[in-house]
Amino acid sequence: MDWSLIIKSLVTLGGLGLILGVILLIASIKLAVKVDEREARIRSVLPGANCGACGYPGCDGYAAAIAAGKAPLNSCSVGGPEVARKIGEIMGQEVTAAEPKVAVLICRGGKNEAPLRFQYKGAQNCRQAALLLGGPKACIYGCVGFGHCVTVCPVQAIRMGENRLPIIDERKCIGCGRCVTECPKGTLTLIPRRKLIYLACVSHDRGRAVKEVCSVGCIACGLCTRVCPVGALRMENNLPVMDFQKCIDCGICAHKCPTKSFIDRAPGRPKASINPRCTGCGECVKVCQFKAIEGEPGKQHRVIPEKCIGCGQCVLVCPVKAIDLVGALGHSVKTI
Amino acid sequence: MKLNPGQIFLAAFLVNNIILMRFIGLCPFFGVSTSVSTSIGMSAAVLFVMLLASWVSWVLYHAMLLPLGLVFLRTAVFILVIAALVQFVEMFLKRYIRNLYSAMGIYLPLITTNCAILAVTFFNINYNFNLLQATVFALGTAAGFALAIILFAAIRERLDDAPISPAFKGYPIAFIGAALVSLAFMGFTALFGIS
């Protein structure tokens, strides 16, 4: 047994380990990077989804940018007003929260509504499929249907439906907009979470050209722009464009649209109901776009529930406040 | 056969490619080759660490282990020193060269105790390379690693979207692909090589 060799190796290896350990210890103190302590605190109140909706690479990047004073405090759409307020406290500033948003699919042409032009056998990926003549769907504007949005969603809020259109779970959606930027066709968009009505078509064609390729596509008839009581819609490049500031979520456009290209997110709509104060002036009959009110002049009118969509226009014009909206939620009378 | 530095580089780069011919360093080869951008970051980190490790281990071996007669300790000593060195370099980069750190920072600790790094330090000794030859060998090996992993990442990016039967999706098809790429590289063995 060569004890000297064992001792020699022990000393060498142990000594080497000790020296390296001491060097690393000194280095960790000397080379320590001073991190702004506000950055760590901001990072701790951010949601940590690393979705990139704020425009910075992940929550760490955003926290660093805020601490450096380079980023607005309310860019986090995921955290919403609550997080913006906490960041404001840390930075000692007043903040106004960003409006929470939700991603929606603005195409309704599934496999039953929008036929294919050709059989596509290539890579099962929206972006690659879209490169080939604009994708296999006859409508070159619509959703390609290979679920690229499903793969990019950081919170798994999107899944593919039976009809090869993505379904977005609004409760899970954090409104980061990743799917919107990744979609090769631009068939996804962000709308304010509190708004209920949106147009679900992106086709810039009109009339027959749309009818031939999709049964639910907007044919650019412009009816919605004429029926809108507040002028929130205007035609632009063969598509109605919604001004969400003006829109009152009445739902008239959605019910009047001949192709059903609008989507109403309201879980249910109220119905108008006329009480005995009614004088039978007939103002409500004139304003109702759905012929849902009937009655003889001078007598109490009544609402036909099957026709009423609960838009609330009659409530506004009634001179004696004889009409109420009752029933399902969606919006309350006050918002009108 | 005596090889000049150019031949050593080519041998390490192509003929004796560390991944495709020696099958060393397969874990980063499969783990980090999912996208081209990450594989480039990994390759940069490997080049950096491999060069440093070669120098340090070569000096340690010839100045300490050989004179003391402790050659059998080389595995433990090399791992210890390389790990500590990379730790130190990481701290140094974080403090002084922030851009380089954010470019390859996360890959540095990953590659520290990788077998590819350790293998290069051992080859340097087994082949009796001098310091210049060891440097060239490390450069060639790192370049070979980069070639293999970036090439393979490009293939895997395509595989992701290819219509592959579910049983083969993911790692199975990646391994089959790697085997085919490896077969192609075996064609180089007829040239020359270090052995």
From TrEMBL, chain A:
The keyword Transport applies. It holds the Pfam family Fer4. Keywords: 4Fe-4S, Cell membrane, Electron transport, Iron, Iron-sulfur, Membrane, Metal-binding, Repeat, Translocase, Transmembrane, Transmembrane helix, Transport. The keyword Nucleotide-binding does not apply. [4Fe-4S] cluster 3 binds at residues 153, 173, 176, 179. InterPro entries: 4Fe-4S_dom, 4Fe4S_Fe-S-bd, 4Fe4S_Fe_S_CS, 4Fe4S_Ferredoxin_RnfB, Elect_transpt_cplx_RnfB/RsxB. It is found in: Cell membrane. [4Fe-4S] cluster 2 binds at residues 139, 143, 149, 183. It is an enzyme of class 7 (translocase). GO terms for molecular function: 4 iron, 4 sulfur cluster binding; electron transfer activity; metal ion binding. Its EC number is 7.-.-.-. [4Fe-4S] cluster 1 binds at residues 51, 54, 59, 76. Residues 129-163, 164-193, 207-238, 240-268, 270-298, 299-328 form the 4Fe-4S ferredoxin-type domain. Its cofactor is [4Fe-4S] cluster. NCBIfam families: rnfB (TIGR01944). The complex is composed of six subunits: RnfA, RnfB, RnfC, RnfD, RnfE and RnfG. Belongs to the 4Fe4S bacterial-type ferredoxin family. RnfB subfamily. This is Ion-translocating oxidoreductase complex subunit B. It comes from candidate division WOR-3 bacterium. The lineage of its organism: Bacteria, Bacteria division WOR-3.
From TrEMBL, chain B:
It is an enzyme of class 7 (translocase). One of its GO terms (cellular component) is endomembrane system. Keywords: Cell membrane, Electron transport, Membrane, Translocase, Transmembrane, Transmembrane helix, Transport. It comes from the Bacteria. The keyword Transmembrane helix applies. InterPro entries: Ion_transpt_RnfA/RsxA (IPR011293), NqrDE/RnfAE (IPR003667), NqrDE/RnfAE_oxidrdctase (IPR050133). GO terms for biological process: electron transport chain. Its EC number is 7.-.-.-. It is a multi-pass membrane protein. The keyword Amino-acid biosynthesis does not apply. It is found in: Cell membrane; Endomembrane system. The chain crosses the membrane at residues 6-32, 44-65, 71-93, 105-125, 131-153, 173-194. The complex is composed of six subunits: RnfA, RnfB, RnfC, RnfD, RnfE and RnfG. PANTHER family: INTEGRAL MEMBRANE PROTEIN OF SOXR-REDUCING COMPLEX, ION-TRANSLOCATING OXIDOREDUCTASE COMPLEX SUBUNIT A. Belongs to the NqrDE/RnfAE family. Part of a membrane-bound complex that couples electron transfer with translocation of ions across the membrane. This is Ion-translocating oxidoreductase complex subunit A. It comes from candidate division WOR-3 bacterium.
